Amino acid sequence: MGLAVLALVVGRHTAGQEQGQGWAAYDGRDWRGFTPAEKRAYVVGFLAAGALADAGRAGAEGPAALGRVLDSLSRGGGLRFPFGHTVYVTQLDEYYWWENHRPTRLYLALWEVNRRLATHER
Fold this sequence. Notes:
By secondary structure, the protein is mostly helical. 65% of the residues lie in helices and 0% in strands.
């Protein structure tokens, strides 16, 4: 569901923008233009995709195994992006408050925010 919401938000946000811009091109200027619901949808989709990738690396093949592996990774602290969407949305809002961060691609900002959270860095 998160990926479907992300696709809807991204599609809606890009209407009227250059057709060639894909998910990897979004940066802080785009983030600051998102509504709160769009921010939530983007991050939820990102977290869902990350969790699916983590489950795939852990050997999940098929829907039945996927649920079990995701539950295990989540309980055992094995997700690469372990925090809830509200944590990431708040941290991205703070990250992009700084004008010099705004050109940073959104996926790189999420990686940086996650790294800082994991190392308790400010």
